[in-house]
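step 3/5: co-fold with protoporphyrin IX containing FE
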Amino acid sequence: MDAQQIAQVTEMMYALRNPAGIPTYPIIFIGLGVLTFALHILFVQLMLGTSAIAIFGAFNNNSYWRRLGSAMLEISKVSVSVAIVVGVAPLLFVQVIYDPHWYTSNVLSAFWVIAFIVILILAYWAMYYFYFVNSKNKDKTVQPKARWSILLSIALMLVVGFIMHSLTSAMLHPEQWKEWFVPNGVADYSGSKLHAYNLWRFAFFISMAIPVTGAMLVTYRRFKSVREDADHAYLNWASEVGKKWIKVGSVISAVLYVAWMMTLPETAGNFATSFWGIAGGVAVIAFALWAQIRLQGEAKLCSYMALPMALVIGLVVAISREMLRYGIINDTFHYDFMDYKIVMDWYSTGLFFLTFAIVGGSVLSYFLTIAWKTGQTVGVYTPSPLVNKMGTIAIWIVALWLVQFFVVGFYIWAK
Ligand code: HEM
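step 4/5: write tokens
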């Protein structure tokens, strides 16, 4: 592309930008976008990996795999909910600072954006169907029923992920948007095509399900091993499978990462050999090394560190991924989200962080305490007075939040 064509693309992107501006510094949006994307993809990977174990368990006669499949299904159905909830967050951030790009890619594939929701509902439903049909089974070693439904679920989840991947990829090609909208001079209003993809990139993100789920298995053993009724032989076996998955999975993912870097578009310049280009791959392979060194024997504390480690590695990859986008859109096409007009709104910025820290913190710590204690208790768990108090405080904080929301709303309305 010559300089004049690039200048036209730059002008088009700025023309599409929201003239109303943004309510706080763009760096805050991008930081939160990267952080929440790392969380989203971690739970996506957990959901896919644990579903894969549920499938493997369902089609395998080995009693350990059967039990593990059933236990991992519990994690999968929670992970899918969390993945969806923490998927909304990066969606909000990316649409604020990359609005010309996000909305264009969504409009150009509008059919798929709407189908995304329908397919996701079906995938979710299929997973729960498998769960409900089999959850009453006390013996976790018998062959589960309706195995087709969990297979269908994972296949549909992958379609959902591919749609997201394609939308994200289309954002990176502003030079092609016009051609996609008006192919051969005739406008295409159907939104029925997924215009861009890179199978290596998609495979990389999906393959990270292997080491991330390995980390989950190592944590699972550590968590369940303190119960009085723990079956240590089974748990140790599960943990060994997990360690293998971290090591082998990280190597597979690192290879796919390299393949992704080797197939970047020309507009990415020399990103593959830049600091962040290399850092992403190094972080992935470092997970295998960490597991080899730190997950020996009992590894009481390090077993609990496996999932946070996976998050840190995901975070490095998320930064690399964001630097790639910035490199293409800013360095090549000269669109810089950092020069967004700021119409500072301290109240909403403050409210966001306070809600996150205080409301989110109190409610989440209560839920997590209950979940933790329930998982480690044999029989029925009865919360202590302290835990009950945490619940009461959390409800009060949510109530106060609602009150301030309406009070401030009415105050502004009345002004
Ligand atoms: C449950 C199935 C889902 C799967 C398997 C999945 C998978 C993925 C993958 C693989 C990516 C990375 C794409 C890439 O960079 O190439 C991604 C990105 C993303 N996903 Fe999901 N996702 C799922 C659900 C959702 C949901 C329900 C939402 C939000 C409502 C969501 C929001 C996002 C966002 C905002 C991005 C990043 C967009 C960007 O930064 O450009 N995802 N997802």
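step 5/5: annotate
The chain has two domains: 3-344, 346-415.
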